[in-house]
Amino acid sequence: MRVLVVGLGATGDAVVRYVRGRGDDVTVVDDRPLDARAEYARVEDARRAGAEVLAPADAATVERLAVGADLVVPSPGVPERHVALQAALAAGVAVRSEVDLAAALTAPTDPSGPRLAAITGTNGKTTVTTLTAAMLDASGVRSLAAGNIGLPLLDAARSRVDVVVAEVSSFQLVFTTPAFRPAAAALLNVADDHLDWHRTFDAYARAKARIFEHQGADDLLVFNADDPAVAALAADAPGRRVPFSVGGSAASGFRVVDGASGRMLVTGDGTELVALGDLTHRAPHDLANALAAAAVALETGATIAGVRDALRSFRGLAHRLQLVGERDGVTYFDDSKATNLHATVAAVRGFDSVVLIAGGRNKGLDLGGLAEVATRLRAAIAIGDAADEVTAALHDRVPVVTAHTMREAVRAASEIAEPGDAVLLSPACASFDWYEGYAARGDDFAREVAALIGATR
Fold first, then answer.
1. Domain check: are 218 and 83 in the same one?
2. Which H or E run contains 25?
3. What is the sign, positive or negative, of the torsion defined by CA atoms of 334, 335, 339, 344?
4. Of the chain's two ends, which shows fewer C-beta atoms within 10 Å, N or C?
5. Cα 191 to Cα 230: distance, rounded to the nearest angstrom
6. In the chain, how many domains are there?
7. What CATH number is given to the structural domain containing 410?
8. What are the pLDDT digits (tens) for 192-251?
9. pTM exceeds 0.70, yes or no
Protein backbone atom coordinates (compact mmCIF):
# COMPACT_ATOMS: atom_id res chain seq x y z
CA MET A 1 0.00 0.00 0.00
CA ARG A 2 1.18 3.54 -0.79
CA VAL A 3 0.61 5.86 2.15
CA LEU A 4 0.94 9.63 2.15
CA VAL A 5 1.40 11.15 5.62
CA VAL A 6 0.64 14.88 5.82
CA GLY A 7 2.57 16.54 8.63
CA LEU A 8 5.48 15.16 10.65
CA GLY A 9 4.67 16.14 14.21
CA ALA A 10 4.33 13.60 17.01
CA THR A 11 1.24 12.10 15.37
CA GLY A 12 2.82 11.88 11.92
CA ASP A 13 5.87 10.23 13.45
CA ALA A 14 3.66 7.55 15.05
CA VAL A 15 1.87 6.95 11.75
CA VAL A 16 5.16 6.54 9.87
CA ARG A 17 6.42 4.00 12.39
CA TYR A 18 3.17 2.04 12.24
CA VAL A 19 2.64 1.90 8.47
CA ARG A 20 6.31 1.21 7.78
CA GLY A 21 6.15 -1.56 10.36
CA ARG A 22 3.45 -3.30 8.38
CA GLY A 23 5.46 -2.92 5.16
CA ASP A 24 3.74 -0.01 3.42
CA ASP A 25 5.52 2.43 1.12
CA VAL A 26 5.44 5.81 2.87
CA THR A 27 5.95 9.40 1.78
CA VAL A 28 5.73 12.29 4.23
CA VAL A 29 5.00 15.86 3.20
CA ASP A 30 5.00 18.94 5.37
CA ASP A 31 4.31 22.55 4.47
CA ARG A 32 7.12 23.72 6.75
CA PRO A 33 10.88 23.28 6.57
CA LEU A 34 11.54 20.82 9.39
CA ASP A 35 14.73 22.25 10.80
CA ALA A 36 14.05 22.47 14.54
CA ARG A 37 15.92 19.92 16.61
CA ALA A 38 12.90 17.73 17.43
CA GLU A 39 11.61 17.96 13.87
CA TYR A 40 15.01 17.13 12.41
CA ALA A 41 15.19 14.03 14.60
CA ARG A 42 11.79 12.89 13.33
CA VAL A 43 12.91 13.41 9.73
CA GLU A 44 16.03 11.32 10.32
CA ASP A 45 14.02 8.58 12.04
CA ALA A 46 11.49 8.51 9.20
CA ARG A 47 14.20 8.27 6.56
CA ARG A 48 15.99 5.51 8.47
CA ALA A 49 12.70 3.62 8.53
CA GLY A 50 12.53 3.87 4.75
CA ALA A 51 10.08 6.73 4.31
CA GLU A 52 10.62 9.57 1.84
CA VAL A 53 10.30 13.01 3.47
CA LEU A 54 9.57 16.20 1.51
CA ALA A 55 9.59 19.38 3.61
CA PRO A 56 8.60 21.87 2.50
CA ALA A 57 6.68 20.33 -0.39
CA ASP A 58 5.15 22.38 -3.20
CA ALA A 59 1.43 22.11 -3.94
CA ALA A 60 1.83 20.39 -7.32
CA THR A 61 3.98 17.66 -5.82
CA VAL A 62 1.61 17.15 -2.91
CA GLU A 63 -1.38 16.87 -5.25
CA ARG A 64 0.41 14.31 -7.42
CA LEU A 65 1.38 12.21 -4.41
CA ALA A 66 -2.14 12.33 -2.95
CA VAL A 67 -3.79 11.21 -6.17
CA GLY A 68 -1.27 8.37 -6.50
CA ALA A 69 -1.65 7.12 -2.94
CA ASP A 70 -3.86 4.35 -1.58
CA LEU A 71 -4.26 6.08 1.76
CA VAL A 72 -3.73 9.65 3.01
CA VAL A 73 -3.28 10.24 6.75
CA PRO A 74 -3.43 13.91 7.86
CA SER A 75 -2.01 15.10 11.16
CA PRO A 76 -4.40 16.91 13.53
CA GLY A 77 -4.90 20.49 12.49
CA VAL A 78 -4.21 19.95 8.79
CA PRO A 79 -7.22 21.81 7.33
CA GLU A 80 -9.78 19.92 5.31
CA ARG A 81 -9.15 22.35 2.45
CA HIS A 82 -5.45 21.35 2.30
CA VAL A 83 -4.41 20.43 -1.24
CA ALA A 84 -3.49 16.87 -0.24
CA LEU A 85 -6.89 16.17 1.29
CA GLN A 86 -8.89 17.86 -1.45
CA ALA A 87 -6.96 16.00 -4.16
CA ALA A 88 -7.36 12.68 -2.37
CA LEU A 89 -11.08 13.11 -1.77
CA ALA A 90 -11.67 14.18 -5.38
CA ALA A 91 -9.78 11.12 -6.63
CA GLY A 92 -11.56 8.70 -4.32
CA VAL A 93 -8.45 7.99 -2.25
CA ALA A 94 -9.14 6.96 1.34
CA VAL A 95 -8.40 9.61 3.97
CA ARG A 96 -8.15 8.38 7.57
CA SER A 97 -6.95 10.07 10.74
CA GLU A 98 -4.35 8.54 13.04
CA VAL A 99 -7.01 7.89 15.70
CA ASP A 100 -8.99 5.92 13.13
CA LEU A 101 -6.00 3.72 12.29
CA ALA A 102 -5.43 3.20 16.01
CA ALA A 103 -9.06 2.34 16.71
CA ALA A 104 -8.72 -0.66 14.37
CA LEU A 105 -6.28 -2.08 16.93
CA THR A 106 -8.76 -1.85 19.82
CA ALA A 107 -11.72 -3.99 20.82
CA PRO A 108 -14.21 -4.82 19.32
CA THR A 109 -12.44 -4.40 15.95
CA ASP A 110 -9.48 -6.39 17.31
CA PRO A 111 -10.54 -8.69 20.20
CA SER A 112 -6.94 -8.84 21.43
CA GLY A 113 -6.67 -5.06 21.75
CA PRO A 114 -7.57 -2.79 24.68
CA ARG A 115 -11.01 -1.29 25.14
CA LEU A 116 -11.31 2.24 23.82
CA ALA A 117 -12.89 5.13 25.69
CA ALA A 118 -13.02 8.42 23.79
CA ILE A 119 -13.60 11.94 25.09
CA THR A 120 -14.43 15.04 23.08
CA GLY A 121 -15.96 18.47 23.59
CA THR A 122 -15.06 22.10 23.15
CA ASN A 123 -13.68 22.33 26.69
CA GLY A 124 -12.69 19.92 29.43
CA LYS A 125 -11.35 17.11 27.22
CA THR A 126 -7.91 16.87 28.80
CA THR A 127 -9.24 17.07 32.34
CA VAL A 128 -11.87 14.37 31.77
CA THR A 129 -9.40 12.13 29.93
CA THR A 130 -6.83 12.46 32.72
CA LEU A 131 -9.41 11.98 35.47
CA THR A 132 -10.97 8.94 33.78
CA ALA A 133 -7.56 7.26 33.51
CA ALA A 134 -6.87 8.11 37.17
CA MET A 135 -10.18 6.47 38.20
CA LEU A 136 -9.31 3.32 36.26
CA ASP A 137 -5.82 3.20 37.72
CA ALA A 138 -7.21 3.63 41.24
CA SER A 139 -9.49 0.67 40.51
CA GLY A 140 -6.62 -1.59 39.44
CA VAL A 141 -7.46 -1.35 35.74
CA ARG A 142 -4.41 -0.83 33.51
CA SER A 143 -5.05 2.30 31.45
CA LEU A 144 -3.33 4.92 29.34
CA ALA A 145 -4.43 8.48 28.60
CA ALA A 146 -3.64 9.18 24.94
CA GLY A 147 -4.66 10.91 21.74
CA ASN A 148 -4.80 14.68 21.62
CA ILE A 149 -3.49 14.76 25.19
CA GLY A 150 0.04 13.89 24.05
CA LEU A 151 0.75 10.18 23.54
CA PRO A 152 -0.31 9.23 19.99
CA LEU A 153 -3.23 6.83 20.03
CA LEU A 154 -1.39 4.44 17.71
CA ASP A 155 1.31 3.98 20.33
CA ALA A 156 -1.20 3.56 23.16
CA ALA A 157 -3.32 1.05 21.24
CA ARG A 158 -0.31 -1.25 20.88
CA SER A 159 0.53 -1.10 24.59
CA ARG A 160 -0.25 -3.84 27.12
CA VAL A 161 -3.14 -2.10 28.86
CA ASP A 162 -6.80 -2.88 29.47
CA VAL A 163 -8.27 0.49 28.49
CA VAL A 164 -7.03 3.38 26.37
CA VAL A 165 -8.69 6.67 27.27
CA ALA A 166 -8.38 8.92 24.23
CA GLU A 167 -8.84 12.66 24.02
CA VAL A 168 -9.99 13.30 20.45
CA SER A 169 -10.40 16.63 18.71
CA SER A 170 -12.80 17.67 15.98
CA PHE A 171 -9.84 17.68 13.56
CA GLN A 172 -9.20 14.00 14.28
CA LEU A 173 -12.86 12.98 14.17
CA VAL A 174 -13.54 14.39 10.70
CA PHE A 175 -11.65 11.56 9.03
CA THR A 176 -12.89 8.51 10.91
CA THR A 177 -14.48 5.33 9.57
CA PRO A 178 -16.49 2.47 11.14
CA ALA A 179 -13.19 1.28 12.67
CA PHE A 180 -13.56 4.11 15.20
CA ARG A 181 -16.03 2.52 17.62
CA PRO A 182 -15.31 3.41 21.26
CA ALA A 183 -16.86 1.18 23.90
CA ALA A 184 -17.60 4.36 25.83
CA ALA A 185 -17.64 7.89 24.45
CA ALA A 186 -18.25 11.23 26.12
CA LEU A 187 -19.49 14.42 24.46
CA LEU A 188 -18.87 17.16 27.02
CA ASN A 189 -20.03 20.39 25.39
CA VAL A 190 -20.17 22.09 22.01
CA ALA A 191 -19.61 25.83 21.59
CA ASP A 192 -18.09 28.03 18.90
CA ASP A 193 -14.46 27.03 18.36
CA HIS A 194 -12.07 26.38 15.49
CA LEU A 195 -14.39 28.13 13.04
CA ASP A 196 -11.30 29.16 11.10
CA TRP A 197 -10.91 25.45 10.33
CA HIS A 198 -14.49 24.10 10.16
CA ARG A 199 -15.99 27.32 8.71
CA THR A 200 -19.42 26.85 10.36
CA PHE A 201 -20.70 25.82 13.77
CA ASP A 202 -22.81 23.06 12.21
CA ALA A 203 -19.74 21.52 10.55
CA TYR A 204 -17.86 21.69 13.84
CA ALA A 205 -20.74 20.09 15.75
CA ARG A 206 -21.10 17.31 13.14
CA ALA A 207 -17.41 16.54 13.51
CA LYS A 208 -17.83 16.20 17.28
CA ALA A 209 -20.82 13.89 16.78
CA ARG A 210 -18.66 11.44 14.85
CA ILE A 211 -17.34 10.23 18.19
CA PHE A 212 -20.46 8.06 18.51
CA GLU A 213 -21.48 7.66 14.86
CA HIS A 214 -20.21 4.09 14.51
CA GLN A 215 -21.00 2.80 17.98
CA GLY A 216 -23.02 -0.39 18.35
CA ALA A 217 -26.14 -0.98 20.38
CA ASP A 218 -24.12 -2.12 23.40
CA ASP A 219 -21.73 0.83 23.37
CA LEU A 220 -22.25 3.85 25.62
CA LEU A 221 -22.47 7.58 24.99
CA VAL A 222 -22.12 9.84 28.02
CA PHE A 223 -23.50 13.29 27.18
CA ASN A 224 -24.08 16.68 28.78
CA ALA A 225 -27.81 17.15 29.26
CA ASP A 226 -27.24 20.79 30.27
CA ASP A 227 -25.90 21.66 26.80
CA PRO A 228 -28.76 21.94 24.26
CA ALA A 229 -26.45 21.39 21.27
CA VAL A 230 -25.01 18.24 22.84
CA ALA A 231 -28.44 16.91 23.82
CA ALA A 232 -29.69 17.41 20.27
CA LEU A 233 -26.71 15.59 18.78
CA ALA A 234 -26.96 12.76 21.31
CA ALA A 235 -30.53 12.02 20.26
CA ASP A 236 -29.09 10.33 17.16
CA ALA A 237 -26.65 8.08 19.04
CA PRO A 238 -27.06 4.41 18.03
CA GLY A 239 -26.04 2.94 21.40
CA ARG A 240 -26.95 3.39 25.03
CA ARG A 241 -27.13 6.98 26.27
CA VAL A 242 -26.38 8.19 29.79
CA PRO A 243 -26.74 11.91 30.58
CA PHE A 244 -24.86 13.92 33.15
CA SER A 245 -26.14 17.19 34.57
CA VAL A 246 -25.04 19.83 37.05
CA GLY A 247 -27.92 22.19 36.36
CA GLY A 248 -30.81 19.76 36.85
CA SER A 249 -31.49 19.06 33.17
CA ALA A 250 -31.57 15.29 33.80
CA ALA A 251 -33.70 13.71 36.52
CA SER A 252 -31.69 10.52 36.11
CA GLY A 253 -28.14 9.93 34.96
CA PHE A 254 -25.02 11.15 36.72
CA ARG A 255 -25.95 14.30 38.60
CA VAL A 256 -25.68 16.53 41.66
CA VAL A 257 -28.20 15.95 44.46
CA ASP A 258 -28.82 17.12 48.01
CA GLY A 259 -27.85 14.24 50.29
CA ALA A 260 -27.97 13.65 54.03
CA SER A 261 -24.41 14.96 54.38
CA GLY A 262 -24.68 17.82 51.91
CA ARG A 263 -24.57 18.09 48.13
CA MET A 264 -23.27 14.96 46.45
CA LEU A 265 -22.27 13.60 43.06
CA VAL A 266 -24.27 10.44 42.33
CA THR A 267 -24.51 7.82 39.60
CA GLY A 268 -27.54 7.08 37.48
CA ASP A 269 -28.95 4.70 40.09
CA GLY A 270 -28.34 7.17 42.90
CA THR A 271 -25.17 5.61 44.29
CA GLU A 272 -23.23 8.31 46.12
CA LEU A 273 -19.79 9.05 44.69
CA VAL A 274 -18.40 11.97 46.68
CA ALA A 275 -19.53 15.00 48.64
CA LEU A 276 -18.81 18.32 46.96
CA GLY A 277 -16.97 19.40 50.06
CA ASP A 278 -14.38 16.66 49.42
CA LEU A 279 -13.46 18.09 46.02
CA THR A 280 -10.61 20.53 45.46
CA HIS A 281 -12.42 22.21 42.54
CA ARG A 282 -16.18 22.74 42.72
CA ALA A 283 -17.07 25.19 39.93
CA PRO A 284 -19.94 23.98 37.71
CA HIS A 285 -17.57 22.93 34.92
CA ASP A 286 -15.44 21.01 37.45
CA LEU A 287 -18.51 19.07 38.60
CA ALA A 288 -19.53 18.37 35.01
CA ASN A 289 -16.05 17.02 34.26
CA ALA A 290 -16.16 14.81 37.37
CA LEU A 291 -19.55 13.36 36.46
CA ALA A 292 -18.53 12.64 32.86
CA ALA A 293 -15.29 10.97 33.91
CA ALA A 294 -17.07 8.83 36.50
CA ALA A 295 -19.64 7.63 33.96
CA VAL A 296 -16.98 6.66 31.41
CA ALA A 297 -14.68 5.06 34.00
CA LEU A 298 -17.41 2.93 35.58
CA GLU A 299 -18.47 1.73 32.12
CA THR A 300 -14.92 0.60 31.30
CA GLY A 301 -14.07 -1.25 34.51
CA ALA A 302 -13.57 1.23 37.35
CA THR A 303 -15.01 0.57 40.81
CA ILE A 304 -17.00 2.98 42.93
CA ALA A 305 -14.13 3.00 45.45
CA GLY A 306 -11.60 3.82 42.70
CA VAL A 307 -13.76 6.65 41.38
CA ARG A 308 -14.13 8.11 44.86
CA ASP A 309 -10.40 7.95 45.56
CA ALA A 310 -9.53 9.64 42.27
CA LEU A 311 -12.09 12.41 42.76
CA ARG A 312 -10.87 13.19 46.26
CA SER A 313 -7.20 13.29 45.26
CA PHE A 314 -7.48 15.10 41.91
CA ARG A 315 -5.82 18.51 42.01
CA GLY A 316 -6.53 19.72 38.49
CA LEU A 317 -4.16 20.37 35.58
CA ALA A 318 -1.70 23.13 34.82
CA HIS A 319 -2.96 26.23 32.99
CA ARG A 320 -6.57 25.49 33.90
CA LEU A 321 -7.64 27.99 36.56
CA GLN A 322 -4.34 27.37 38.34
CA LEU A 323 -3.56 29.68 41.25
CA VAL A 324 -0.06 31.06 40.61
CA GLY A 325 0.23 33.89 43.14
CA GLU A 326 -1.35 36.23 45.67
CA ARG A 327 -0.45 39.78 46.71
CA ASP A 328 -2.27 42.33 48.85
CA GLY A 329 -5.50 40.34 48.79
CA VAL A 330 -5.46 39.88 45.01
CA THR A 331 -5.19 36.35 43.58
CA TYR A 332 -3.63 35.54 40.19
CA PHE A 333 -4.97 32.64 38.13
CA ASP A 334 -3.48 31.04 35.00
CA ASP A 335 -6.27 29.82 32.71
CA SER A 336 -4.20 29.95 29.53
CA LYS A 337 -5.84 26.75 28.24
CA ALA A 338 -9.03 28.77 27.75
CA THR A 339 -8.57 29.31 24.02
CA ASN A 340 -12.22 29.97 23.17
CA LEU A 341 -15.05 32.16 24.41
CA HIS A 342 -16.98 29.32 26.06
CA ALA A 343 -14.05 28.47 28.34
CA THR A 344 -13.37 32.08 29.29
CA VAL A 345 -16.99 32.85 30.12
CA ALA A 346 -17.16 29.73 32.33
CA ALA A 347 -13.95 30.74 34.10
CA VAL A 348 -15.06 34.33 34.82
CA ARG A 349 -18.36 33.08 36.22
CA GLY A 350 -16.42 31.28 38.93
CA PHE A 351 -15.37 34.61 40.51
CA ASP A 352 -17.18 37.62 41.92
CA SER A 353 -14.79 40.32 40.67
CA VAL A 354 -12.18 39.86 37.96
CA VAL A 355 -9.51 41.81 36.13
CA LEU A 356 -9.46 39.79 32.92
CA ILE A 357 -6.43 39.42 30.65
CA ALA A 358 -7.78 38.30 27.27
CA GLY A 359 -6.73 38.20 23.64
CA GLY A 360 -4.30 36.41 21.37
CA ARG A 361 -4.90 34.90 17.97
CA ASN A 362 -8.63 34.60 17.37
CA LYS A 363 -9.90 31.38 15.79
CA GLY A 364 -12.74 32.95 13.84
CA LEU A 365 -14.91 33.46 16.93
CA ASP A 366 -17.13 36.39 17.89
CA LEU A 367 -15.51 37.79 21.02
CA GLY A 368 -18.50 40.04 21.56
CA GLY A 369 -19.76 37.32 23.89
CA LEU A 370 -17.32 38.57 26.54
CA ALA A 371 -19.99 41.13 27.32
CA GLU A 372 -22.02 38.30 28.92
CA VAL A 373 -19.75 38.44 31.96
CA ALA A 374 -19.05 42.19 32.03
CA THR A 375 -20.89 42.55 35.34
CA ARG A 376 -18.20 40.40 36.98
CA LEU A 377 -15.32 42.41 35.50
CA ARG A 378 -13.62 45.32 37.20
CA ALA A 379 -11.56 45.84 34.04
CA ALA A 380 -9.98 44.01 31.11
CA ILE A 381 -6.44 43.95 29.75
CA ALA A 382 -6.43 43.32 25.99
CA ILE A 383 -3.42 41.51 24.51
CA GLY A 384 -2.20 40.04 21.24
CA ASP A 385 -3.59 40.11 17.72
CA ALA A 386 -7.18 40.20 19.00
CA ALA A 387 -6.67 43.12 21.39
CA ASP A 388 -8.92 45.38 19.30
CA GLU A 389 -11.69 42.74 19.33
CA VAL A 390 -11.50 42.41 23.11
CA THR A 391 -11.64 46.19 23.40
CA ALA A 392 -14.63 46.41 21.07
CA ALA A 393 -16.51 43.81 23.11
CA LEU A 394 -16.01 45.50 26.47
CA HIS A 395 -15.00 49.16 26.16
CA ASP A 396 -18.50 50.54 26.71
CA ARG A 397 -19.02 48.35 29.81
CA VAL A 398 -15.73 48.27 31.74
CA PRO A 399 -12.33 49.98 31.52
CA VAL A 400 -10.06 48.29 28.97
CA VAL A 401 -6.28 48.69 28.78
CA THR A 402 -4.15 47.40 25.89
CA ALA A 403 -0.84 45.70 26.79
CA HIS A 404 1.90 44.79 24.34
CA THR A 405 3.74 42.24 26.48
CA MET A 406 2.74 39.87 29.27
CA ARG A 407 4.76 41.97 31.70
CA GLU A 408 2.73 45.05 30.76
CA ALA A 409 -0.48 43.05 31.14
CA VAL A 410 0.33 41.73 34.61
CA ARG A 411 1.55 45.12 35.85
CA ALA A 412 -1.52 46.90 34.47
CA ALA A 413 -3.84 44.34 36.04
CA SER A 414 -2.12 44.64 39.40
CA GLU A 415 -2.55 48.42 39.41
CA ILE A 416 -6.29 48.14 38.76
CA ALA A 417 -7.14 45.16 40.98
CA GLU A 418 -8.49 45.67 44.49
CA PRO A 419 -8.42 43.31 47.49
CA GLY A 420 -10.74 40.37 46.85
CA ASP A 421 -10.30 40.55 43.08
CA ALA A 422 -8.89 37.81 40.87
CA VAL A 423 -6.50 38.69 38.06
CA LEU A 424 -7.39 36.06 35.50
CA LEU A 425 -5.44 35.15 32.37
CA SER A 426 -8.23 33.52 30.37
CA PRO A 427 -7.56 34.62 26.80
CA ALA A 428 -10.49 33.20 24.75
CA CYS A 429 -7.94 32.97 21.92
CA ALA A 430 -5.08 30.82 20.72
CA SER A 431 -1.54 31.75 21.75
CA PHE A 432 0.32 31.55 18.46
CA ASP A 433 0.72 35.29 17.98
CA TRP A 434 3.15 35.64 20.90
CA TYR A 435 3.92 32.05 21.95
CA GLU A 436 4.47 28.51 20.69
CA GLY A 437 1.49 27.25 22.68
CA TYR A 438 -0.89 27.94 25.57
CA ALA A 439 1.54 26.36 28.08
CA ALA A 440 4.29 28.82 27.15
CA ARG A 441 1.80 31.67 27.53
CA GLY A 442 0.72 30.45 30.96
CA ASP A 443 4.31 29.95 32.07
CA ASP A 444 5.15 33.52 31.03
CA PHE A 445 2.17 34.82 33.00
CA ALA A 446 3.29 32.86 36.08
CA ARG A 447 6.83 34.22 35.74
CA GLU A 448 5.59 37.79 35.54
CA VAL A 449 3.31 37.27 38.53
CA ALA A 450 6.25 35.85 40.50
CA ALA A 451 8.41 38.81 39.45
CA LEU A 452 5.68 41.25 40.51
CA ILE A 453 5.26 39.63 43.91
CA GLY A 454 9.02 39.39 44.44
CA ALA A 455 9.54 43.03 43.53
CA THR A 456 7.03 44.25 46.11
CA ARG A 457 8.01 42.14 49.11
1. no
2. strand 25-29
3. negative
4. C
5. 9
6. 3
7. 3.90.190.20
8. 655 565 568 888 899 999 999 999 999 999 999 999 999 999 999 999 999 999 988 888
9. yes
